[in-house]
Amino acid sequence: MIKKERSLMAYTPEIKVMDCTLRDGGLVNDFFFTDEFVKDLYFANLRAGVDYMEFGYKASKEMFDIKKYGKWKFCDDKAIREIVGDNKTDMKIAVMADVGRCDFKKDILIKKDSPIDLIRVATYINTIPAAVEMIEECTKKGYETTVNIMAISKSNELDIDAALELLGQSSVGCIYLVDSYGSLYPEQVSRLSEKYMEIAEKYGKKVGIHAHNNQQLAFANTIEALRHGVSYLDATVSSLGRGCGNCPIELLLGFLKNPKYRINPLLKFIERHIVPMREAGVQWGYDVPYLLTGLLNQHPRTAIQFMKDSRRDYHDFYLDLLENF
Questions:
Q1: Distance of alpha carbon 65 from alpha carbon 297, whole angstroms
Q2: Considering only CA atoms, which of 264, 270, 198 is closest in space to residue 230?
Q3: What angle do CA 88, 204, 45 make, to 5 degrees?
Q4: Quick check: 3 pLDDT over 70?
Q5: Rounded CA Rg of the chain
Q6: Which runs of consecutive H residues, i.e. helices, occur in the chain?
Q7: How confident is the model over 297-325, as pLDDT tens digits?
């Protein structure tokens, strides 16, 4: 059977774009965004036609020191309401909840009492049963749910198949293909997208992609997944995100053929907020250390530390990485 692929030049109404700037970008500055930044981003996303805006994490305040992080590490409902009010718009509000780092039974309220629409459960492949427990709890409370299986490039085929089958049987609405280390190439994304879509079609789910830009492939991998039927697309403004960053949302919206998407509001936001962030010395985006961890399918933490230390000994760093390969 020949699988039908989407035309990248066609209008695809089922596509949903998720802005992850505050959540993935919060890993760059410990979530210390000003209210002005967050409000301006909210309104820029509204005007740009973005479908979902992720505000940050629902992290446990008993596990993380609230003095070391900005409020979007915890995403109290009150803090979100101060930005969006009742959010009587078409754009939905999302937060991420990490397995093992969120007191979801206490901190995630019943949907009717919250401005949040979507809970994104983040899990590694070995914690899928705990992720399913969170998904079912959030579904019961009235939320849309998605699940991000992180570091998929480190998992073997049998484990991926078993995880997808378990998630397919759960109440989750969308299963995300996540290139945590920015190590995947388009041909690998193509094969994985087909695998995820097979489960999605079997159980009536959607599939999303969250890409990192270690090898300058976040955009290419996103549209490759789109070609194979993936419909939830994650991106951040100017690629703002952990280490090398993500698929740039202004690039993605400029590419998509849905007339609802507009890049002008995001360009104004970049002028007002992103350029000053860079000028103030906040670092993210493609650089050689992130390339090297991506090539070797390793977590970017060593590259992030390399950048913080203002090192330039790329060759020695590469040799160190090879020792741990």
A1: 31
A2: 198
A3: 30
A4: no
A5: 19
A6: 21-29, 35-48, 77-84, 104-107, 128-140, 157-168, 186-203, 218-227, 249-255, 264-269, 275-279, 288-295, 301-308, 314-323
A7: 999 999 999 999 999 999 999 999 999 87
Q: Are 104 and 62 in contact (CB under 8 A)?
A: no
pTM: 0.96
Residue 189 has φ and ψ, to the nearest 5°, of -60, -40
Q: Retrieve residue 231's tokens.
A: 């419909």
Q: Are 232 and 209 in contact (CB under 8 A)?
A: yes
Is the per-residue pLDDT at 52 higher than 90? yes
Residue 227 φ then ψ, to 5°? -60, -30
Residue 180 · residue 153 · CB < 8 Å: yes
Which tokens belong to 156? 């073997």
CA dihedral 178, 180, 186, 189 (to 10 degrees): -30
Q: What is the DSSP letter of 3?
A: P
**Beta-carbon contacts of residue 8 (< 8 Å; ≥ 6 apart):** 223, 226, 227
What does DSSP assign to residue 120? E
Fold of 16-279: TIM Barrel (3.20.20)
The SS3 of residue 290 is: helix
Beta bridge partners of 248: 236
Tell me the one-letter amino acid at 95.
V
Question: Tokens 């998509």, residue?
Answer: 256
**Residue 178 to residue 47: CA distance in whole angstroms:** 27
- Give the range among 9-23, 122-136, 179-193 with minimum mean pLDDT: 9-23
Domain assignments of the chain as residue spans, ordered by start: 16-279, 288-323
- The 10s digit of each residue's pLDDT in 130-165 is 999 999 999 999 999 999 999 999 999 999 999 999
Torsions phi, psi of 273, nearest 5? -125, -40
pLDDT attached to residue 2: 45
Phi, psi of 299, rounded to the nearest 5 degrees: -60, 140
- Which residues are registered as beta bridge partners of 122? 98, 148
Q: Identify the H or E element spanning 66.
A: none
